[in-house]
Each structure stands twice: as structure tokens, then as C-alpha cells.
Design a protein that fits this description.
The chain is of the alpha+beta class. It is about 15% helix and about 40% strand. The chain contains 3 helices and 12 strands; from the N terminus they run αββββββαββββββα. The strands form 3 sheets. The chain has a 5-stranded mixed β-sheet with strand order 4-1-9-10-11, with helices on one face. The protein is globular, with a radius of gyration of 18 Å.
Length: about 220
Amino acid sequence: MSSFTRFLLAAMLLVGSTFTNAGSLPYDAWRLGFSAPDYMEVWVETADVIDMQGQVYRRAMSGVSAIQTPKNNAGNPKGWPKRSGWGKGKYVTGADLPKKIFVRWQSLAEPQTYQVGIDIPESTQEIMRTAEKTYCEATGKWTTGYRKAIAIGLAPGGIVKVWVLGPCLAPIEVTQVKAEVDPRGPYEGKSGGRYDSLSKNSKEYVETFGVPYGSW
């Protein structure tokens, strides 16, 4: 039995125990997005979601994350931004609020393959359900909105940081966890250990300055 299958079975048992406390969304769908520090490119092989009802949404998101790779090493990959963005992603349509998010990704700057199961606690779900009145600078008006997006930052060393945010609402950091190395390597061992290549600008930065471990 693979580690992912064991994770799903355990998570579904856990979610089943809290089924009676599940609440419905106050909006049509929530969004899942990913980002990475400057030049520290990642490829998300899969982001699988188990919602509060115990439903599994495989590959709710996959592909590249949001990232900046300025020329001439002008970027700064150290640390996280003061205000997290939404990241590159999509809405998880039809799902209740998430209970668990499983992510497997390639950290191309190292290179290394990581996997992690992220618990989304009731306190975070409550934040996502709660309407908040705020002044929106984009429109110049007061509005009421929800933090209906989960933004996940992926950094070398398997560092994972999670925020919730919404239109005109500031992000709230909800957790930081450390992923484990997937010993199978990229693509579950199906690529012969070969990783996708870094872009030209990212490769130049890493070869010049290395990976700033410990800054995240």
C-alpha cells in the first residue's frame, strides 16, 4: 500500500468522525493556490483534497506555482512576503471546506521531491465561514466578504506555509509544516529520477547564490 493510499484511508476515517459537525459553504466554491519564493521553482505533481464530508478530490490542483524570476538576479527568495498573494490555482468546485490537503511536489532548485498532508483545523474553517466588513481600496467602497481562498507556499527543504485570504481581506497565516522527502523521487519514481529543468533565470540565481535554506 502506497503512502498516499494510507494517508487517504486514515484521513477519511478522521473526517468521518466529524461528519455531523460539517457545515455548508456560505459561497459557491473555495480556491486553492500555490506560490514559491523567487527562483525556487516547484512543480506540483498533485494536490488532493478531502473535504469535511469525506469526499476526495484528486488533483484539485497541479502544475507550476506562482513565482517571480527577475533577470540579473534582481529578485530575493529569502523569507515569505509580508502579504501573501492568492498563488496560481483554481476553485475546488462542489467541495465543502477542506479537512485535509495532500500535496506532492518537485522542488526544482534542489532538486528534491516532497509530500505532505496538511490538516485544516476547525479554527481555520471558521475563519473561512465568517463574513467580514472591510474597506476595499480597489473599489473605494466598504464591502462584506469572506476569506474563501487557501494559499500554500512551498519552499526548499520541504517548508510549507498556509494562509487564508479573500478579496479585499488581508491574509491570515494559519499554519507552517515541514514535508517529508518522497523516496520514490519525481513522478512517483516513473521518470528514472529525472527532474524538470529550472528556467534560465532561476538556474543562474541558484548557481550564483545557492539555495537560502533556513530563511523560510
